[in-house]
Amino acid sequence: MILESTPNGLYCSQGGFYVDPSRPVRRAVVSHAHTDHARWGSRHYLAATRSEHLLRMRMSDEAEFQFLNYGESVTIGGVKVSFYPAGHMLGSAQVRLEHRGRVEVVTGDYKLGADPTCESWEPIRCHLLVTESTFGLPIYRWEPDHVTTTAINDWWRESRDAGKCCLLYGYAVGKSQRLLAGLDPEIGPIYTHGAVEKGTEAYRQSGVAMPATTYVGSIEGKHDWKGGMVVAVPSAHGTPWMRKFGRVSTAMASGWMAVRGSRRRRSVDRGFVVSDHVDWPSLLQAVEACDPETVWVTHGYTAVVARYLNEQGQHAEILDSASRGEQEEEAATSMQSNDRQNADPRLDDRQEPS
């Protein structure tokens, strides 16, 4: 085996590095820039080049970085390390490790299908596949992107015609930019919460096309918000920050919106099922495409996925993870104060449970 599970996360003893460590370490190989995978405090980070602007946005200036293009490799202690697109967000990567003919792959967070804001997931044949299972239940099945995008724009148009401003909630880095890419600017002006604008600027610097946006905080004095679309982080909901927009219609974009009651608990008017993680059929499709001898299942509904795979003749094991579960991450995120987000948006890009 190349990888082993430790209290600090997945460890490669031959190379002396961790993959997405749960605590600060000397050398970290990271799959993407969300903070539950790229944690603050490590000395040296190795990541995909496409994530550079996002990582530098939120890491300490003292951190050392090394970046690789997708498909390129570097050998560390005899272990060949390379990155391949994961489709989760800008710069997200599967980590491929090869040593003496054995190949092990860590998916990080990933999704299948096209996304205008990042490269699409690619299958990698391997001996060991470490897969997330955030939405690893048969009830989670995503609709095609164009269906959801049309529904969001229709909701915006209807709200505009009713003289309202739309507030669409999505996590600051990754989800929000995907939502922005699907908005129709012909409907009205698009505004952003401070944390969302910070992440969007990093996307623009990385060459990802984004519609024109205006940072809410840059507008002084009275302003007519009717007909506008404001993309904001979930914890802004229900705060005094919302009052400036007058009559509003609110919506949450999240994979959790597929579950009855999630919209009610969020106290929003609409819920759109938009996730940057694999759903149940995509997870199974990914395992089949990678054709591993062994699957380690982590982050989510691990027991359900592992049991199902074993029943299908696959050798699957539950991988203990020091990372918080996605539901816990969502709850903690929703409790963060709006003041904290506006003060330091670099801290907000860990908000991606959905």
Write a structural description:
By secondary structure, this protein is of the alpha/beta class. The protein folds into 2 domains: 4-140 and 276-323, Ribonuclease Z/Hydroxyacylglutathione hydrolase-like (Metallo-beta-lactamase, Chain A), CATH 3.60.15; 145-272, Rossmann fold (3-Layer(aba) Sandwich), CATH 3.40.50. The protein has 9 helices and 19 strands. It has helices at residues 52-58, 145-161, 175-182, 194-205, 262-266, 280-290, 302-311, 326-334, 338-343, and strands at residues 4-6, 9-12, 17-19, 27-29, 44-48, 64-68, 73-76, 79-85, 93-99, 102-106, 128-133, 165-169, 190-192, 214-215, 229-232, 248-253, 270-272, 294-300, 315-318. A 7-stranded mixed sheet has the order 7-8-9-10-11-18-19, covered by helices on one side. The chain is globular and about 65 Å long.
